[in-house]
Amino acid sequence: HGATSTAALPADAAALVMALRYRSLGGGGFQLSLPTPTFEVLAKDFGVSAECFASPLNCWFGRFCSAFPDCDAPFGSLGSFFDFRPARGAFEVNPPF
């Protein structure tokens, strides 16, 4: 049977699914991000409004592309960066490592 989107789950269940998915990756360096002052400059001076590689656990903007759109969508994920085709805008790209 197919996977069920977490969008239909209560918020606490969706958060649990998301947290378990990221925990399953192991390691501790997957959630690093730029410092807040950097995001503030990007937003104010360059009009950046979304991140191209983030997760609900480390996003600064409310909109971001993520590795697991199926469980990150309820938290603001725009889907995978590799499927992201914006018509215009400014975006922060801090590739995963």
By secondary-structure content and strand pairing, the structural class works out as alpha/beta
Poorly predicted ranges: none
Measured between the Cα atoms of the first and last residue, the distance is 32 Å
In oligomeric terms, what are we looking at?
Answer: single chain
Secondary-structure element order, N to C: HHEEHE
What is the helix content?
25-40%
Mean pLDDT: 86
The fraction of residues in strands falls at 5-15%
Q: Categorize the overall geometry.
A: globular
Strand arrangement, largest sheet? 2-1-3
The biggest beta sheet reads: 3 strands, parallel
How many beta-strand segments? 3
Helix run count? 3
C-alpha-based Rg, rounded? 14 Å
Question: How would you explain this protein's 3D organization?
Answer:
The protein is of the alpha/beta class. The protein is built from three helices and three strands, in the order H-H-E-E-H-E. It has a three-stranded parallel sheet. It is globular. It starts with 10 loop residues before the first helix and ends in a 5-residue tail after the last strand. The model has no long low-confidence stretch (mean pLDDT 86).
